[in-house]
Backbone:
C-alpha cells in the first residue's frame, strides 16, 4: 500500500485533475447531446466515475482514506440510481415504445 | 517504478498483442465457408433471427443481481477487519443483512424470482 | 459509543423502524388483509411525528458526521408534519382499484425519502450529506412513475431520475474539489480552511449548481413543471413541499456554516438568481392553465422568495426561512389537497376552466383552496403574510433595497395569478361545473389540518419566537 501510494504520486496531481476534467466534460456533453436514454445514463455513470477517480487521487495525495471511502458509497448509490432509472426506462419503453428522449414532449409547454 | 520500466512495459505489450494478431492473420491456412461464419450457439443450428425480444425476466434478475452484487462493497471491507472491529460491528452488519434479506424476501413474495 | 447516543438519531431510527414494520406487514400478510396497511402506516407516522416533538438531547455522533442540534430537530419535525399530511391526503387516492396492489410501496418509498432528508439535515460532513440527498431523491423518481400505465407518469419519472442523477454528478464534482483543496470532508474543518482560491470558487459553483437543480432555482428549473404535471397529484405535493423544504434547509445551513468565509461571494450569486427566480417563476405561472403546472411555477417563484431569507444570512433570516417553510407546507399542501380531491372525484380534471362555478357546487373545497392561495400570495389574515413579512424584514435589515423592491413587485404580480383560480371558482359562470361530491374522512382530516395550520401558525407568534431562539446566522 505504501509503495503503491508512492508510485501513484510519481504521476503529478495535475494529470489526474486534467484527466478527470476531460472525462467529466465528455460525460456532460454526452448527456446534453445524445438522445438515447440508455446512453445518457451511461454518460452520467462516466461523470460519476471521473469524480471517483478525482477523489481517489486527492485521497492518495492527502494520505487520508476518507476520499476512498467516499468512492465506495458513490459506487453503491450509482448502482441504485441505475437500477431505478432502468426500471423506469423499461416502463417508458412499454408505454411509448421508444427510448428516445425527443419523444418525451407530452409535458412540454 | 521509473519511466524506463513504464516505457518497456508499453513496448512489450504492443509487441505481444500486435505480434499475436499478425501471427494469426498470416501464418495459419485460411478457409472461408458459410458454415464457419454462421452464428454459433452450443453447436445447434440457430433458428430465426437473433434480433428477438428478450424475456423481461432476464431484466428483473439483472437488477436484483446488480443490487446484491454491489452490496459486497460494504461487506468485504468489514470481513477483512472483522476481528479488530469486534461485536458491535458484527451486530451492525447483521442488521444490514436482515434489511437486505427483507428486500430479497419482498422480491420473492412478489414472484420476481419465478422463471416464466 | 454508548447506547444512549442512539437517542440522538431518534427521528431516523424510528422512521427506519416503521419502514421495516410496513415491509414485514407487506411480506407476511395475505392479499385480502392488505387494506389494513393504509391506516397502519398513517397511525405509525402520526406517532413518530408526535414523538419527534418530545424534548431530546443534542450532540454529535460518529466523530462529527452526524449533528443533532435543536434547530435541526425542529426542521425534521416540520418535515415530519408535511409527510404526515401527505400520507393522510393520499389515503383515499390509494384506495382506488389501480393503486390497491401497491399501497405499502407508496408508504415505504415515501418513508425512505424522509429518512434520507432527516439524515441530510443532520449531516456534519459531505459523505452523510450526499447519502441523505440520494436517499431522498432516488425513491421519489420511482414514486413519480407510480401510475404504471400512464405515459405522462413514466415521462415524469424518467425526467426526474435523469435530472437528479445529473445534478448529483455535478454536486459530487464540486464536493471532490472541496475535498481536494481542503483535505477533509467534515463541515467544521472545511468551514475553517475554505478560502477563495480559484479551485475553491469553482468547486462552490459546481456545488451551487447541483443544489440549484434540487431546489429548482431559475436557470436550472426546466424539469420542475414537467415532473410536477406528470407525477400523480399526491406525489407532486410531496415533491414540491417536503422535498424542496429539506433541500432548502440543508442548503441554508451549509451556506451559513460551511461557506461562511465566502459569504460575500455567494450573496452576490444568490441575489441575482433570487431576483431571476422570482420574476421568471411568476411570469410563467401567469400563462398556465393546468393547475398542477400553475402550482409548479408558483413553487419556483416561492423558492426565490425563500432565498431572500438566506441572503439576509442573519439569525432572523434563518428563522424566517424555517418559519416560511412551515407556512408553505400548510398552504401548498392545502392547495394540492383540494386539487387532488377534485381530480380523483371528477376523473382527472385539473384545468383552471374546469373550476368555473365550483363555489356553487362545492363551497367547502373552494373556500379551502381560496384560503391556501391567499396564504401563498401573502394576503394578511393568513400565515403566508407573516412568512413573507419576516423574509422581507431579513433582507431589509441588511440593506438590500433593490432586491426588496423586486420582491415586493413580484408579490404584487403574484397576487394577479393567485386570484385567477379564485375568480374562476367564485365569479365565472359555467354550464357544466364539477358536480357536488362528498370527500371521505381522510381527505377531510388532511384539509382541516392544513387550514388549522395556516390560521394558527399565522396568529400564534409563539411559534416564530420559538424558532427564533433556536436559530443561528453568519
Residues:
Amino acid at each position: 500500500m505504501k509503495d503503491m501510494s508512492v508510485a501513484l504520486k510519481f504521476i503529478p496531481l495535475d494529470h489526474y485533475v486534467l484527466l478527470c476534467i476531460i472525462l467529466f466534460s465528455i460525460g456532460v456533453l454526452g448527456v446534453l447531446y445524445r438522445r438515447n436514454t440508455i446512453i445518457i445514463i451511461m454518460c452520467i455513470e462516466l461523470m460519476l466515475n471521473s469524480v471517483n477517480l478525482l477523489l481517489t487521487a486527492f485521497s492518495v495525495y492527502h494520505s487520508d482514506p476518507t476520499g476512498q471511502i467516499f468512492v465506495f458509497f458513490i459506487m453503491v448509490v450509482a448502482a441504485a440510481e441505475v437500477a431505478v432509472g432502468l426500471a423506469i426506462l423499461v416502463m417508458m419503453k412499454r408505454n411509448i415504445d421508444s427510448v428516445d428522449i425527443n419523444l418525451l414532449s407530452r409535458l412540454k409547454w | 517504478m521509473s519511466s524506463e520500466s513504464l516505457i518497456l512495459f508499453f513496448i512489450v505489450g504492443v509487441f505481444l498483442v500486435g505480434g499475436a494478431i499478425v501471427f494469426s492473420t498470416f501464418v495459419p491456412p485460411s478457409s472461408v465457408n458459410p458454415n464457419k461464419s454462421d452464428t454459433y450457439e452450443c453447436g445447434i443450428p440457430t433458428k430465426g433471427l437473433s434480433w428477438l425480444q428478450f424475456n423481461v425476466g432476464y431484466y428483473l434478475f439483472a437488477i436484483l443481481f446488480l443490487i446484491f452484487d454491489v452490496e459486497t462493497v460494504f461487506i468485504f471491507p468489514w470481513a477483512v477487519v472483522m476481528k479488530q472491529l469486534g461485536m458491535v460491528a458484527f451486530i451492525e452488519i447483521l442488521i444490514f443483512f436482515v434489511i437486505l434479506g427483507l428486500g430479497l424476501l419482498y422480491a420473492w413474495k412478489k414472484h420476481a424470482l419465478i422463471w416464466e | 459509543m454508548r447506547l444512549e447516543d442512539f437517542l440522538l438519531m431518534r427521528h431516523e431510527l424510528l422512521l427506519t423502524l416503521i419502514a421495516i414494520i410496513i415491509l414485514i406487514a407487506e411480506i407476511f400478510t395475505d392479499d385480502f388483509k392488505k387494506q389494513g396497511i393504509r391506516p397502519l402506516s398513517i397511525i405509525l407516522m402520526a406517532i413518530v411525528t408526535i414523538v419527534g416533538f418530545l424534548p431530546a438531547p443534542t450532540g454529535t455522533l460518529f466523530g462529527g458526521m452526524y449533528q443533532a442540534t435543536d434547530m435541526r430537530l425542529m426542521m425534521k419535525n416540520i418535515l415530519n408534519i408535511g409527510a404526515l399530511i401527505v400520507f393522510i391526503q393520499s389515503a383515499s387516492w390509494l384506495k382506488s382499484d389501480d393503486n390497491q396492489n401497491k399501497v405499502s410501496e407508496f408508504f415505504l418509498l415515501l418513508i425512505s425519502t424522509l429518512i434520507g432528508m432527516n439524515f441530510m439535515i443532520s449531516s456534519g460532513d459531505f459523505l452523510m450529506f450526499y447519502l441523505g440527498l440520494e436517499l431522498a431523491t432516488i425513491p421519489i423518481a420511482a414514486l413519480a412513475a407510480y401510475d404504471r400505465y400512464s405515459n405522462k407518469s413514466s415521462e415524469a419519472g424518467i425526467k426526474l431520475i435523469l435530472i437528479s442523477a445529473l445534478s448529483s454528478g455535478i454536486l459530487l464534482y464540486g464536493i471532490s474539489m472541496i475535498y481536494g483543496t481542503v483535505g477533509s470532508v467534515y463541515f467544521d474543518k472545511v468551514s475553517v480552511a475554505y478560502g477563495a482560491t480559484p479551485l475553491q470558487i469553482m468547486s462552490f459553483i459546481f456545488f451551487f449548481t447541483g443544489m440549484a437543480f434540487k431546489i429548482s432555482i431559475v436557470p436550472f428549473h426546466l424539469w420542475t413543471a414537467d415532473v410536477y404535471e406528470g407525477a400523480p397529484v399526491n406525489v407532486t405535493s410531496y415533491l414540491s413541499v417536503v422535498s424542496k423544504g429539506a433541500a432548502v434547509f440543508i442548503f441554508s445551513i451549509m451556506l451559513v456554516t460551511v461557506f461562511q468565509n465566502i459569504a460575500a461571494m455567494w450573496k452576490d450569486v444568490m441575489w441575482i438568481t433570487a431576483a431571476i427566480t422570482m420574476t421568471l417563476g411568476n411570469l410563467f405561472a401567469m400563462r398556465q392553465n393546468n393547475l398542477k403546472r400553475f402550482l409548479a411555477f408558483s413553487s419556483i417563484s416561492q423558492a426565490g422568495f425563500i432565498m431572500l431569507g438566506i441572503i439576509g444570512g442573519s439569525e432572523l433570516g434563518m428563522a424566517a426561512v424555517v418559519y416560511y417553510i412551515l407556512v408553505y407546507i400548510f398552504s401548498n399542501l392545502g392547495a394540492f389537497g383540494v386539487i387532488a380531491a377534485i381530480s380523483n372525484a371528477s376523473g382527472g380534471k385539473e384545468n383552471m376552466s374546469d373550476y368555473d362555478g365550483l363555489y356553487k357546487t362545492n363551497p367547502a373545497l373552494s373556500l379551502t383552496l381560496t384560503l391556501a392561495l391567499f396564504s401563498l400570495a401573502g394576503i394578511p389574515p393568513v400565515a403566508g403574510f407573516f412568512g413573507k413579512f419576516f423574509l422581507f424584514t431579513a433582507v431589509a435589515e441588511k440593506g438590500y433595497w433593490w432586491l426588496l423592491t423586486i420582491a415586493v413587485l413580484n408579490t404584487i404580480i403574484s397576487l394577479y395569478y393567485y386570484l385567477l383560480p379564485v375568480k374562476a371558482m367564485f365569479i365565472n359562470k359555467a354550464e357544466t361545473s364539477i358536480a357536488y361530491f362528498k370527500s371521505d374522512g381522510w381527505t377531510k382530516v388532511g384539509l382541516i389540518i392544513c387550514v388549522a395550520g395556516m390560521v394558527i401558525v399565522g396568529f400564534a407568534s409563539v411559534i416564530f419566537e420559538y424558532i427564533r431562539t433556536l436559530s443561528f446566522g453568519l
